[in-house]
Amino acid sequence: MRRRGGHIGVVAVCSALLGLGGVAAAQEGKAAKADAPKKEAPFTPGGKWRKGDMNRPRPPVVTPGTASTQDAPGQPPSDAIVLFDGTDLSQWQGRDKGEAKWKIENGYMEVVAKTGEITTKERFADCQVHIEWATPSEVKGNSQGRGNSGVFIQGHCEVQVLDSFENDTYPDGQAAAIYAQYPPLVNASRRPGEWQSYDIFYEAPRFDDEKKMVKPAYLTVIHNGVLVHHHVEVPGNAVECPLVLQDHGNPVRYRNIWVRKLKGYDGE
């Protein structure tokens, strides 16, 4: 029995020593890890900021707008430049920088035939444009003669306005077409007289120091909440340009027009 007890004691001592050795090894391992240089977080796209960098600029706070209904326009987001709120045409000019002569009533403006297009006084580069429009409730004419107008960006890039509800015409000339270039992906038109909306996202061209274009202009268009153009290349020869609403001789109405100037990530 004594021999057995001695054996057990030796085993216990050895186990304790082994345990202490394990603890020491673990502590040495932790110390080695602490001494090892920390791996830097990978860069995010663009190569300027690392993942999780608390020094990265915070995005500006914008209060969202509200949705429009057929009865009333919604409110724009807090950073929008309001171009038409239903009360006046102070942000617009007519031909030869004269007075805009379109009619204003009941919170909308209406094309007055033969008075000419109207143009914003301000010019825009990268931007989001929101505009609501309606063709006449009483249907007159067909094809291109029915509720025709347009929203021009860069002077010669037109997002077509037309009554395209059960009104056949050439595809690159119907409502929401980038006129004479791209038909919309789908026809999302509402009935004549109903308010419709365009949300246009414009990316201006870029030029080098020698004024050579290094990046073309692009356009994305949403018609009544439906994507109809997705980042398509369009003609553009200036970084900044005004918006133009076309007089095509039809009494098309417009309301709730605003623009947001767009910047890149981190405010660049």
CATH class of the domain at 81-267: Mainly Beta
The proportion of strand residues reads 25-35%
The CATH homologous superfamily of the domain at 81-267 is named: Exo-inulinase, domain 1
Mean pLDDT: 89
- By CATH, the architecture of the domain at 81-267 is named Sandwich
- Computed over alpha carbons, the radius of gyration is 32 Å
Can you count the helices?
1
Question: Tell me about the biggest sheet?
Answer: 8 strands, antiparallel
The sequence of SSEs as H and E is HEEEEEEEEEEEEEEE
Helix content: 10-25%
Shape, per Cα inertia axes: elongated
What's the total number of strands? 15
Helix-strand category: alpha+beta
Uncertain ranges:
10-14
Straight-line distance between termini: 85 Å
CATH topology of the domain at 81-267: Jelly Rolls
Give the oligomer, counting copies of the same chain as homo and different chains as hetero. Answer: single chain
Identify the notable features of this structure and list them briefly.
268 residues, alpha+beta, Jelly Rolls, five-stranded antiparallel sheet, elongated
